[in-house]
Design goal:
The chain is an all-alpha fold. The chain contains 22 helices and 2 strands.
């Protein structure tokens, strides 16, 4: 059924009419499990458990961390309720880019696209640097030889680029294997802890308001939301999904619920193992060794070694997932003509966004080379500087997308718990966490550097650039402006509106 909105907006640019075959991604090749593997691997469960959870215990609200993670998952589920409802209306690999543009206009959409692409890029570079650091340590421990961290970073980038160049199903299989291994090991540690302390050893008071609202809640909330970043990436793969109207929503719910309950249960086990009154002090003494020490105590030496190895596979899986996400944003911008159109081309055989991938590879290579030449430490300098930047950017986009979804449906005369209330409430909670992350940015980075801790302002500058470019295009090249986030948006049979 046609709405008044259909009559006042220009007709959409449908892909079938505007996009050459060489510019299309593979269609119908990803199932629910493939998409779940892609986004969960980008969330890096092992990396979260080994690095973020101990930091939340140490500098957050201690034993209240499991309850804080549960609250974060509740907010993400509210976000997902509206997120999956807008997916059938807006079919575009740009996800945030397309949704914000369809809700509040092309100018805001273009601004969001640059922030999203850069945020995923920053997280890719950060994770590559961390991967290189851990590879250097493990190789030196096993062989006694030391290879400069940049060698491992270049190798990781080359492999990620090669996998991204080929058909997306190959990357999904690699990520699925890595994800299964790390999740299995962490769950094995959880069960070992339960065996040692018994079900009665799990402290249910960790979910009470007294512990959740303890000093440090804001810091814990930052790490909680930081840990679930990536699960929103399901929509990025909708153009490549089988039956996207079913597959993508299903994958979104599975990813949010599984990742969330996995973190809550693991945090609960670790907090109970250390003791509610001791977990903060124990983790604060050596956050990086906390999970390894728990593995050594409850699984033995092999468990500690396995954690050390799987941190590497988890990091690489995250690199690959983040690389694919960033490449698809560049592809969407190139296809719409905002960036060079070559980026909107896909490989004739693999249907991968290979040119966008090569551009991303070169950009990451430049960051790694400059960092190595400057003598920067891969963990304390490179990873630390960029992880917070990407995390704050994605948290902000999550909040904005959640808050604009109700606008999208309200403009179409659609109101209700799922389309307006739930995403709006979820968006407000995520927005509050984003403000906390911005105000407490030094907690995310873990350093006192003024330069590093002012990096989030670069996101504001990038967003402003997107706004300026959109206004310039609107005046100088209206036809190109109308292509921004161009997509097919269906009310039903025979009904379309454009962003």
């Amino acid at each position: 059924m046609s709405t008044p909105l259909n009559r006042v907006l220009p007709p959409p640019v449908a892909e079938s009419d505007s996009t050459p075959v060489s510019g299309r991604l593979s269609s119908g090749v990803l199932g629910t499990s493939d998409i779940v593997f892609m986004v969960m691997a980008a969330a890096a469960p092992m990396g979260v458990v080994v690095t973020l959870l101990p930091m939340a215990f140490a500098f957050g609200n201690g034993a209240g961390v499991p309850g804080t993670y549960l609250g974060a998952i509740g907010a993400m589920l509210l976000f997902a309720v509206g997120y999956v409802r807008i997916i059938p209306f807006v079919q575009n690999a740009g996800a945030f880019y397309a949704y914000i543009a369809a809700s509040v206009g092309r100018t805001c959409g273009l601004s969001a696209a640059y922030v999203a692409a850069f945020s995923y890029f920053a997280l890719s570079a950060s994770t590559l640097a961390a991967l290189a650091f851990f590879c250097e340590l493990l190789f030196q421990r096993l062989t006694g030889l030391k290879l400069h961290w940049s060698v491992w970073a270049f190798a990781g980038l080359a492999l990620a680029s090669w996998l991204s160049y080929h058909r997306i199903t190959l990357a999904a299989r690699v990520l699925g294997f890595a994800l299964a291994a790390e999740v299995a090991l962490i769950l094995l540690l959880d069960l070992a802890i339960l065996t040692h302390i018994g079900l009665k050893g799990l402290d249910v008071l960790d979910f009470t308001p007294t512990r959740i609202l303890a000093p440090g809640l804001g810091v814990a909330a930052i790490y909680a939301f930081n840990g679930v970043l990536g699960v929103e990436g399901t929509a990025i793969y909708q153009e490549e999904a089988r039956r996207p109207e079913v597959t993508v929503p299903r994958a979104t719910y599975i990813a949010v619920v599984f990742v969330g309950l996995f973190y809550v249960f693991t945090a609960w086990c670790l907090a109970s193992a250390a003791g509610a009154d001791r977990v903060s002090a124990v983790t604060k003494s050596d956050p990086g060794a906390f999970v390894v020490n728990q593995s050594l105590e409850h699984l033995g030496a092999w468990g500690a070694d396995a954690v050390s190895v799987l941190v590497l596979t988890s990091s690489f899986a995250a690199v690959l997932g983040l690389f694919n996400s960033s490449a698809r944003y560049l592809y969407a911008l190139g296809r719409d003509g905002v960036l060079p159109r070559a980026m909107g081309h896909t490989h004739p055989k693999h249907r991968s966004p290979h040119i966008a991938g090569w551009v991303l590879t070169v950009a990451l290579l430049i960051v790694l080379v400059l960092s190595a030449l400057a003598g920067l430490d891969p963990l304390t300098n490179v990873a630390t500087a960029l992880v917070g930047l990407g995390s704050v950017g994605l948290m902000a986009l999550l909040a904005i997308t959640a808050l604009t979804i109700p606008v999208f449906f309200a403009r179409r005369g659609m109101f209700g718990l799922g389309v307006t209330v739930a995403p709006g409430v979820g968006g407000l909670v995520i927005a509050a966490a984003t403000v906390l992350a911005f105000l407490n940015y030094s907690v995310l980075t873990g350093v006192d550097s003024v330069v590093i801790n002012r990096l989030p302002y670069a996101l504001i500058a990038l967003a402003a650039f997107g706004v300026c470019q959109a206004h310039w295009l609107k005046r100088k090249n209206p036809a190109l402006y109308l292509r921004i986030a161009s997509t097919r948006i269906d009310d039903g049979p025979g009904s379309q509106v454009s962003p």
